[in-house]
Amino acid sequence: MELSEHIKTANVEDVTLRRPFHPTLRGTLCVTSHHLLFSDRKDEASWQLLILLKNIDAIEKRAVGSSGTITIKCKDLLVLQLEIPGMEECLNIARSIEALSSLESVTEMYPFFYRPSHLTLHGPWGLSSTEQYYKQTERLWDRWRVSKVNSDYSVCPSYPSAVIVPREVDDDKLIRSARFRQGGRFPVLSYCHHRNGMVIMRSSQPLTGANKKRCKEDELLLQAVIDGSELGYIIDLRSAQQAQQTRMTGGGFESKSCYSHWKRIHRHHERGKVVQESLIKLVEACSDPSHSVDRWLSKLENSKWLSHVHSALSTAGLVVECVERDGHSVLVHGSEGTDNTLLVSSLAQLILDPASRTVTGFLCLLEREWIQAGHPFQQRCAHSAYSHARLKQECPSFLLLLDCVWQVWRQFPLALEFSEALLLRLAQEVYASNYGTFLCNSEQERCAAGVKETTHCLFQSLLKPDIEEQYLNPLYEPTDLAIWPAVHPQSLQLWTGMFLRWTEYAQNMEEAREEVWSIVKEHREQAGPDRTNNTLSTHCESLTPIENLMDELTIL
Amino acid sequence: MASAPIAPYNSSPLGNSSSPNASRESLKMEPLADVAMLPGEERVIDKDIIYICPFNAAVKGKVFITNYRLYFKNTDSETPVTLDVPLGVISRVEKMGGASSRGENSYGLEITCKDMRNLRFALKQEGHSRRDIFEIIFKYAFPLSHGMQLFAFLSQEKYEENGWNVYEAMEEYRRQGVPNSEWRITFINKIYELCDTYPTILVVPYKATDEDLKRVATFRSRCRIPVLSWFHKENHAVITRCSQPLVGMSGKRNKDDERYLDLIREANGTTKLTIYDARPNVNAVANKATGGGYEGDDAYQNAELVFLDIHNIHVMRESLKKLKDIVYPNVEESHWLSSLESTHWLEHIKLVLSGAIQVADKVSSGSSVVVHCSDGWDRTAQLTSLAMLMLDSYYRTLRGFQVLLEKEWISFGHKFASRIGHGDKNHADQDRSPIFVQFIDCVWQMTKQFPTAFEFNERLLVVILDHLYSCRFGTFLYNCESARESNNVRVKTVSLWSFVNSDTSLYINPFYTPESSRVLYPVASMRHLELWVTYYIRWNPRIQHQQQSPVEQRYKELLALRDQYLKKLEELQLSDSAPSSTHLTNSSTPNAATPNQHITHLQTPF
């Protein structure tokens, strides 16, 4: 079926459009295969792009006399209203939106048709790769290697073709270890700490099952990770009890007797549906139109969203504590190893590694730890907070990551090179995008769909100088220190920029941001070229001892 | 795995930049640890004591009591634990345990403070060891209850600027554009004859004679007649303030009062004067029983009355008390948000802010308003001063804010002495209430929502609140102008503004962008209000870290390091007899202020 066959009525005149912070407009509405367009009559020639259809999470129809009203609720939390004269037109438009906003086939999606004149499809796609990371990280060269065992995605369908593993473990052992891990996600290197060479590994759960199966190769692999040092930590993102229970369904955990040099710590994290429902409750509370004081804080608490933020940040802090303070390597996993595992490992890197706090570094981190590492974006982001569709595999893991990063940024306003605007942009792009970056569920699927050949890369486009500037933090001062966020409930805040973004408050904040920018720019101009010589940041290297003062996290 | 070491717990609420003239030589006792005493400060007693820190274990050390402060320093370990508490902060001192109490550290003192914390000390259980220190703290913390003077009258501090000159009523009214053809200045209250809780200089409608004022005064609670607070230069609308009318059970009317309000309305041709009664409707009605009340429709036909639903001083006191219960010593973590909600503190903040927004909005649309509550010195002051802060960018500067406080709060008789209980031992006094704290909280909420609109920073707000209690300065002493005058406060004490203005760089918001004509309307929805964690929970060492770590602390450390490097560089240059040109540039450039060094304050996320 051609996409255009979903469109019964392409144009409607005399439509009234209402959206927050804009005057009500009357004009012509138009549905195309991927977009909703609107033009007010003043300027017939130019269509204003309203939204990508994919951004629409839910619509509500209401008949008022002979005309109908469609309320459009977007995945980026924007809510629009269209008043359409003519019931039939209204229903046709609604039907088209419903069909076209929930396309299943990847290659029919807009990124495959997006061809702006300033971008070309030739040249390398993406910012980083496993090989590049390996090349950049000198500390790895001695004991680690890049394995191509998954080059045809047969060992682990959700891993990229290349992974970093201990040098002494050969590909055969990897294959055996993969058979022992859910979805084939055997332990691979995710980060090597620049200060002490300790590593963060990630995987999925071992398939020990009810009768406590073992896998020699898996044990050897982990043994090779710590290589003679006496201890490593396994951070299991499930409670001990949950981990026990999964044995009944074939899963399990690394027992002390088989992995004698690894100490297991359990931290309970909610997942999947529970987190998705939190988001729904949170957004419901935020978009309650009454300005009443009626139990807002209780609603916020009951959504449990902030408690997910708390868990993610505090477990990431725990990982950092193991690596940085105690000097031990860590393996992180939950069950599948595609959601909370990535959340925790990437947050830990943000806290530990100054390189991941630049715009480029952060995008590379997302690319390695989320996109290449096989977070199933298509499944997780099929719907956001408004949809009434039955939940399948939706889960806002990535939004939760962005929220956690925002909390870090709020507590360390100087430490990140990027600003809230970048996080908001990513939150929007992950649900609906012109770019191919967040398409599909794995590298394998992206390969099959030809994403790299036929779509543009979001991250590359974000890094174009004129675009990048709007995402820079004017106050950025790099620091080499670990930035430990405080995780107490009174230290965590609702991410108002995201969840209350369509209110006047957000506008005040935006204005303030612009003013700060101009002040900082003015100062820089005054300071002139000297700035490079005398920023205090050049002395940061010698500040390492005080990082030990930053011990808000008394986690253990 | 070792758990993180507990952070050293230090407490020094006040910027202790005492004058270097403090003569310490005269003291025979050992030097008072690391703290420089204020001129006029005298040692009273030292004592070995155990501080039962709620965040650490018990700490052995020594406590020093002066006529101004309680200072504690530990002696048992290298990590310093100090307390530096002005005695004025103390609300209550109690003995805990008895000579025969069992259990470790069960015999000692419990000190309740006005600034969201309590202190516990333990002493040796022998020979009435706590008697002398208990009596001394009791005496010096509550000097007025013992026929002694507040420390502000003993202090010998000297500053270049005289902060008492910050506010000159005439000058401020002239700045607003008053007097003019609609409003005149009257000296009828020169010797506080008309109203003993008002200032001497009042601004009233041009057409109202002094005789009119006297007659209106008979119909307003405590003679607090409607007078001008603020004048809108463009549309000539005004904010006026007063107390409730004395309507009483019988529904009395007063023609003079009715005519007087109409004069306010007429001054700029407002069609309907809006009277904002800060109270909830029911409270206003209930006040009739005690002779008060509100402006009825029949009597005031050209006015509309709006109730703003703000609760009274008792409700606010209980609310803050509940807040203290959930944040000190330990923060209620498991149900933080719903516990916070049950204190209703943010809800009260919301009501005050949204009341002020209504006032500001009405005035900027060109209509004059009258604001009152019962006596017109608590909620009224909150509403008028917040509305003025929204309307007039001058009050958002460091100077202007001082003027605002001097004018709307201090000169118009907010009863600081009664609300705070300076030097008074009656901790359970029903007159005490955190009305001013609540106002400062509202200001803080505004600075959070408009991070570039205020010239001053959060530190100023905290310093103001600290000295609200400290009794080091005369600024917040007494209930009204007349009492301050008869006690010679301006001559005998130092103003807080002398201290603040002696080093304004500490209080400047680096991101301030002056904008003269903009009215700031904060969003007063619960969703956009935050608990002022860095004030209310600042005694918690975890919050202290958070408060300091990101910006201020790091800059301080970096600056200190830079100084070290400079010193080293200098030494190197000295040892190198022929300094090359590169040395010279190196040594000079770090002195040039980089843009980032200006940015000393940033608790606000943007």
From TrEMBL, chain A:
Domain Myotubularin phosphatase: from-to ranges: 124-499
Domain of life: Eukaryota
Cellular-component GO terms for this entry: cytoplasm
PROSITE patterns associated with the record: PPASE_MYOTUBULARIN (PS51339)
Record-linked InterPro entries: Myotubularin, Myotubularin-like_Pase_dom, PH-GRAM_MTMR6-9, PH-like_dom_sf, Prot-tyrosine_phosphatase-like
Gene Ontology molecular function terms on file: protein phosphatase binding
Biological process annotations from GO: negative regulation of autophagy; phosphatidylinositol dephosphorylation
Family that this chain belongs to: Belongs to the protein-tyrosine phosphatase family. Non-receptor class myotubularin subfamily.
PANTHER family: MYOTUBULARIN PHOSPHATASE DOMAIN-CONTAINING PROTEIN, MYOTUBULARIN-RELATED
Full protein name: Myotubularin phosphatase domain-containing protein
Source taxonomy: Eukaryota, Metazoa, Chordata, Craniata, Vertebrata
From TrEMBL, chain B:
Keyword Metal-binding (UniProt): no
Domain Myotubularin phosphatase: 163-536
Membrane topology: Peripheral membrane protein
SUPFAM superfamilies in the cross-refs: (Phosphotyrosine protein) phosphatases II, PH domain-like
Annotated localization: Cell membrane; Cell projection, Filopodium; Cell projection, Ruffle; Cytoplasm, Myofibril, Sarcomere
Gene3D superfamilies registered for this protein in UniProt: Pleckstrin-homology domain (PH domain)/Phosphotyrosine-binding domain (PTB)
Domain Tyrosine specific protein phosphatases: 343-389
Reactions catalysed, as given in the entry: a 1,2-diacyl-sn-glycero-3-phospho-(1D-myo-inositol-3,5-bisphosphate) + H2O = a 1,2-diacyl-sn-glycero-3-phospho-(1D-myo-inositol-5-phosphate) + phosphate; 1,2-dioctanoyl-sn-glycero-3-phospho-(1D-myo-inositol-3,5-bisphosphate) + H2O = 1,2-dioctanoyl-sn-glycero-3-phospho-(1D-myo-inositol-5-phosphate) + phosphate; a 1,2-diacyl-sn-glycero-3-phospho-(1D-myo-inositol-3-phosphate) + H2O = a 1,2-diacyl-sn-glycero-3-phospho-(1D-myo-inositol) + phosphate; 1,2-dihexadecanoyl-sn-glycero-3-phospho-(1D-myo-inositol-3,5-bisphosphate) + H2O = 1,2-dihexadecanoyl-sn-glycero-3-phospho-(1D-myo-inositol-5-phosphate) + phosphate
InterPro entries, alphabetized: GRAM, Myotubularin, Myotubularin-like_Pase_dom, PH-like_dom_sf, Prot-tyrosine_phosphatase-like, Tyr_Pase_AS, Tyr_Pase_cat, Tyr_Pase_dom
Biased composition regions of type Low complexity, renumbered to the chain: 8-23
Record protein name field: Myotubularin
UniProt source species: Onychostoma macrolepis
